[in-house]
Amino acid sequence: MKTHTRLGRLALIAAIGLTNILPATASPEGTWEIESRDSRYAVSLCGDGTQLCAELIWLGNGADNEQNMPYLNTLLIDRASPTKPGEWQGKLHLFGQTADGTITQVSPDQITLRGCVALVLCKSYQMYRFAE
Known about the structure:
The protein is an alpha+beta fold. The protein has one helix spanning 2-25; strands spanning 30-34, 39-46, 51-59, 75-84, 87-94, 97-107, 110-117, 121-129. Helices cover 18% and strands 52% of the residues.
């Protein structure tokens, strides 16, 4: 009986460990939508194949206005460098503003963008994988 209990505990620990690994191994490539559902981005691995790029490909729900349209088909993320599995750092280009950013893939279907200007003014955004 004790052997089964130990095996059960080991299986549980292994399952928890695999759950923590999955986000890091899931590909960030694909179409992602910002939490406000007014913009979508094509995310790809670029540069040397480990860097992250994201291009604004769609505006809607009120964001498709004269002020934002010039940013359509421009890069939000341009060759952010990996810092650890599932995390990249680089410049974020947010509607005319540039910020130092960290991009973290928290699950196969969620990315967190955190941008800071002068390390003082910081804002986080959630992006979710968009399925057509």
